[in-house]
Amino acid sequence: MVFGLANVAAAVAPATEVMLVARLLSGVGAAMIMPVTLSVITSSFPDEERSRAIGMWTAVAGGGGILGMYLSALLVDIASWRWLFALPIGLTIAALAIGVRAVPNSREPAPGRFDLPGALASVVAAVGFTFALHEAPALGWGDPLIVATLTMAVLATAGFVTRELRTPFPLLDIRHFRTRGLSSGSTLLLVLFGVQGGTSLVLYPFFQVVLGWSGLLSTLALMPMALLMMLASGLAPHLAARIGARATMVTGLTVAGTGLALMASLVSVSGGYLTVLPGLMAMGLGAGLAMTPSTEAITSALPRDQQGVASALNDLTRELGAALGIALLGGLLVAGYQSAIGGRLDGVPADLAATASEGVANATAVSREAGGHGEQILRAAQEAFIAGWQQAMWVGVVVMGGLTLLILFRGPRGAGAPAGRSRW
After folding, report:
1. d(CA 149, CA 129)
2. Topology (CATH level 3) of domain 2-111+169-342+382-410
3. What is the pLDDT of residue 181?
4. Is the pTM of this model over 0.90?
């Protein structure tokens, strides 16, 4: 209800302030919904069918976001931006109708009071790390603001861990991370969604600004990745049953990392979309293979009466990973662009060069009014964007390589050890 009503408010918002509040409430509603969907599945299905159920959930959760963006872009093209919210409103109504009849009314006991200090500490830590990762590539890791922000985030993290270990009713029991499945599955989803989120951030300006595509066409260009992700998520349980969860996760990460390497090495302005398509397809295939066994590793690590905790942790790692990845890879893209464009604007008037250095979108806009310097500015911006792109993607490759090694040596033992069995 919160999610649906918030989207209604956003659709009719008369001012920006109302829109921002409505979107905030929409996020709160979505955060309440997502963990419940997975916990209902893991609690309702027997163990022998849970892998396939989680595979279907992962396929919808992973590919649904891109499908939703495409439908939203279509609504904007054929109507107006207010119709963006028609889709979530319609889905909310459908979900309510189906949920009342099909979803079992289960309840997990929650003894004790809500851990407000722990929640506040976690928010400060998440915001601090996200800000630092986004700004550090441009300002430098030694910048006083970055150092102060990182210090604050580290202290908040330490405070959160200390609080959760001492309080009788923790928001998140840190001791659960001694379980291999929980720790490795959470780490994989955190990093994988970070890399995916950062990659999407890089792709949209490439499609829309560098190639000049519309928002609708740019979203459609991501469909091969989404469709392969959904397909691989459904196939992952069958592969895990044959070769094991850890081997499936490593295979998926290797394929996804290869996709990043392909996007970093093949991308070019002249080659256009075809230079990134092989990498997109590999990313989708690899992510789908890795996500399903990771999600099952998390949920299998805890008993049935704690599936709400497992589901919430699964969702948290996805959302936090996406935020951190967008901040890091986006910051690297901006820093790489600004570093590369300076030497390509020799002879361009200072005011035009300053505007072009702010970003590829500004450079494209100012090139239309730059007279004889327009072509030079546009070419410089496109080449600098590719340089920043490659820097961000190669960092992603290194991160994925490190994650692959971690899962190879510290991934879950077997295809789904009982809760509490597979320890570090």
Report:
1. 7
2. Growth Hormone; Chain: A; (1.20.1250)
3. 80
4. no
First to last CA, the chain: 41
Q: The tokens 């030079």 sit on which residue?
A: 376
Tokens at 26, concatenated: 């929409």
Predicted confidence at residue 343, as pLDDT, reads 81
Query: What is the C-alpha to C-alpha distance for residues 204 and 335, in angstroms, rounded to an integer?
Result: 17
Closest by CA to 179, choosing from 414, 406, 411, is 411
- The full set of domain ranges for the chain reads 2-111+169-342+382-410, 112-168
Residue stretches of the chain with pLDDT short of 50: 415-424
What are 210-217's contacts with CB under 8 Å, separation 24+?
210/269, 210/360, 210/382, 210/385, 210/386, 211/269, 211/272, 211/273, 214/73, 214/77, 215/73, 215/76, 215/77, 216/70, 216/73, 216/74, 216/76, 216/77
pLDDT of residue 37: 74
pLDDT in tens, 304-327: 767 777 777 778 888 888 888 888
Per-residue pLDDT at 416: 43
pLDDT of residue 414: 56
